[in-house]
Amino acid sequence: MGCDPRLSRSDFLKMAAVVSAMATLPAMGQDAQEALSSDDIAKAEKLAGVSLTEEQRSALARQLQAQRRAFDELRNGDIPNDLAPMTPFVPQGKVKNLAGPVDANVIRRDRLRRPNNDEDLAFMTVAELGQLIRTKQVTSRELTELSLRRLKDYGPRLLNLVSLTEERALAHADLMDAEVQRGRIRSHLHGIPYGIKDLFAAKGAPTTWGAQPYREQVIDHDSKVVQMLESAGAVLCAKLACGALAMGDVWFAGTCRNPWNPTQGSSGSSAGSASAMAAGLVPFTIGTETLGSIVSPSQRCRVTGFRPTFGRVSRAGAMTLSWTMDKVGPICRTAEDCALVLTAIVGADPDDPASVNR
Q1: Which terminus of the chain, N or C, has fewer Cβ atoms within 10 Å?
Q2: Candidate list 140, 147, 267, 269, residue with the active-site label
Q3: What is the pLDDT of residues 4-27, one digit of tens each?
Q4: Is 267 a catalytic site residue?
Q5: pTM for this entry
Q6: Distance between CA atoms of 214 and 244, rounded to whole angstroms?
Q7: Strand 161-164's sheet: what is its strand order?
């Protein structure tokens, strides 16, 4: 309620008391076009135990009617989940994109050789697989087909798979192999398959948020993290299980399993990302954390999760649970792998006002 500077403190407090009392009365003026009257105000005065002048009643009725029109406009508006509120404070000025993956050191593995069987290949680290790709001992197509096979085999058993992005994955893997043949390596993630928590939008796949009402939801664009990983050369293979609306490890298909002990849930809403890592379904995954959803499933499934500082990674295109707490981070086999993935996704993004360059 606006404060008329001509009002005394006692008169203003009286009017405030009337406004509070009106909230306890039966609905008045149900028709949005029906103006609140002085009689409506007078009814509330009795509850508040105060008395206003006729001029004060008329002024208060006008203010309340204006507020009601504003509330009606808000209620009738369509506010999408990805519309950020004006919570961030960014004193350094205009947000700029961080162009391309950040350089990162990697442990040298000059004598690394491809293992003799696919099972061992499936459990190699991102750093090791990158070396095999760069030395042309394995192709992105081979790794992608291996991940897709394992996702199809183990995903339904562990309930950690929501959907495959098979056609997209194979096409991108072939492109990455062609670039290797031309001598181009985009980053340490070049040609490496991965899976992402099903909070993130990705073209060609449903984005279910783990909840039955959104099971058929399609958001036909790539989230910022998916865009950055594709630019770095990583190959998206799957959308992985997310606890319903980012809460816990239970989603519309059931409880996502811990591969080490399938009688257990895999804990936390990044359940599918941690479970898929532990089972060797993809070389790395992406999760989110509001309050423990990377750390907890990583601990349960005995993999390495990295929960970045708030604002380090853009959340554009991901379902919002808490605008001031949500964070995006990698779940991998080793700390080195987490560092390699993180370098590809950090940086400010104009579509996420809370994200910054540091």
Answers
A1: C
A2: 269
A3: 445 566 666 666 666 666 655 555
A4: no
A5: 0.79
A6: 10
A7: 161-164, 235-240, 193-197, 284-289, 327-332, 304-305
